[in-house]
UniProtKB/TrEMBL annotation:
Keyword Protease listed: yes
Domain of life: Bacteria
Pfam families: Asp_protease_2
One term of GO molecular function: peptidase activity
Record-given protein name: Putative aspartyl protease
UniProt-listed InterPro entries: Peptidase_aspartic_dom_sf (IPR021109)
Keywords assigned by UniProt, alphabetized: Hydrolase, Protease
Coiled coil start-end: none
Length: 98
């Protein structure tokens, strides 16, 4: 497992013209979920498809967040992924879902 930062492009899966670039997204290879600031996802029109999903943070704290779907691009790699609507105090990152 490792942690690094990489430029990532997040795209609305319905309308690819709606996209945002996160220049230094935190990448944790041991994480199961992609966290993106809620304001960024809302700005590009990503819908909250699942609400109040439980997550366990690295410090053991259990929280709930909404999840949607977006296309995530890093360099030449691309995938459609569940994206967590992160609150202000969390940066764009990846975490474990309980």
């Amino acid at each position: 497992m490792g942690i690094c930062r990489a430029a990532a492009k997040i795209e609305n899966v319905v309308d690819r013209e709606q996209a945002a670039t996160i220049p230094k997204m935190l990448v944790d290879t041991g994480s199961e979920s992609t966290w993106v600031p809620a304001t960024t996802l809302e700005k590009i029109g990503v819908k909250r498809e699942k609400k109040d999903l439980a997550f366990v943070m690295a410090n053991g704290q259990q929280i709930t967040r909404s999840v949607g779907f977006a296309k995530v691009r890093v360099d030449k790699a691309v995938t459609v992924d569940e994206v967590v609507f992160a609150e202000k105090r969390r940066s764009a990152a990846r975490s474990t879902q309980s």
